[in-house]
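Journal club prep — side note

Before the paper discussion, L.F. wants everyone to see what a predicted structure for a comparable chain looks like in token form. Sequence:
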Amino acid sequence: MKKIIAAALTLLCLTCAAVSVVSAEDIYYVRGDANGDGVVNVNDVTAVQRYAAELEGLNETCRRAADVNRSNVVDMDDATAIQRYSAEYKDSYRIGKTSYYDPYELPVVPNH
């Protein structure tokens, strides 16, 4: 009986360790924060416009934050949505909210 309990506790510990390793990989960001400074404002609109015009790059986290409409493309639609959020228009993309992604998550394929 002691061996079964010890085995069960070992398995439980290994399971908890595996879960904490995966959850440590989650990457948090503020949706719409394209320049990575922690706030969403017109500077993020400029970062998206510069990225869309291929004048400047974005790291993976900033690129995910900038793609507010989840089209898998950072473009002027994202810049417009961030600009509307900055002007306090109604937001349907949860801009300004903390989001996260799991690097093991499958990519979203847009419908054509």
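L.F.'s comment for the group: Confidence is low (pLDDT under 50) at residues 15-24. Keep this in mind when we get to the figures.
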